[in-house]
Structure prediction request, 444 residues.
Amino acid sequence: MLHVTCYSLTAKREGNPIGWDVNFKDRGIEDASMTNRLNEDEQDLPLAGIRVLELGNFIAAPFAGRVFGDFGAEVIKIERPDGGDELRDWRKTRGETSMLFRTIGRNKKSVELDLRSELGVKAIKKIVETTDVLIENFRPGTLEKWGIAPEILTAINPDLVIVRISGYGQTGPYKDRAGFGSSAESFAGLRYVTGEPDRPAGRSAASMGDTVAGLYGVIGALMLMFKRARGGAKNSSNVVDVALYEGVFSLLESLVPDYDAYGMVRQRTGGRLPGVVPTGSYNCGDGLEVVIGGNSNAVFVRLMKAIGRPDLAEDESLLTTEARRMREDELNGAIEEFTQSMPLEQVLEALETAGVPAAPVFDAPSIAKDEHYLARDMIQTHEVVVEDEPELVRFPGVVPKIPGHQGHVRWLGPDLGEHTAQVLRDLAGFDAEQIAAANAKAAH
Prediction:
């Protein structure tokens, strides 16, 4: 294995037309055990050598950290004493650490540290000296209260990019409100249009508000890093301000423009999108479900022929979205009459032959054994201790695919404080006495 130390975007970039210093920054022999020791494959990862300091909890900031880690960045996750990130307990039915944390926390180093303490602040300030990106998702003002405000951290490292994720952003009349993904999805309008018309607002079974905010955080950080690498102004802002609700709102397409232009207030429509016809979930003869998207003109014609309705395929009045919307119940009825006449497998075969987008409604067991997931390495088996002994557990793979530079899961979410002594010694410069003191505070 080839051992090298990390490089940093804080290194000089003179003579490089793109701006990135391709030489690994020498951080000294003492640091070599802590920085990513990259083998030949890891050197090809797009973010190899980038150091990320993650101060967040739950999902938004940790999801951003996961993306960085998947593609080679060294991600140092700071966790509060007495339990660490609460995600460790979510959906856990046995053992000490949830599979959710093992997933979101993968490729990270866990450091148990009290950020409210003098030692904790001292450690952060020292680690920041050689850090490229800091990610946090506390309520606005929290870093300032702890004495590690952005202006203090960027005075230490002017090239540090700081990603701040919060419910309502760092400015505005609601900035001090507490905010989780659930409230963000409601405030952004997503919950209002999700679910069945005659029932209370529904929700997606995934943390959409948090994960979208995390992705925007990564995008923002990479944009600032790339701008600086290309010689951008040194006195410009280093902060990426992501509001949970804004990330969700950005996904709702023309929700407000439709209201202004057409007086349209979108309502809950179950599994179908208003004005996008025909599309939705349909029951099959064996009790399983299929989702069909036949809402473009060409696909609509192919779909109608596939279900045995050439009369509808040849009806030129249906070659507009608005005309199909007016006859939505009729069209959906024709489709379901077809799907209910045969089992799911035959429905999918017929639609695939016709070139109509369709997919089964998969549950976890179906996903875990599907040949396409397996072929694209989206289901990966890892050995992990759930309770007492190691077990084989399947975990999701890495997105996106970048041939020749593909990210991978180097390790699953670590045990709480697994890397505390190592990080404090190698990056914060703590001696044995200081490390023991930090550990003692964590124990209390």
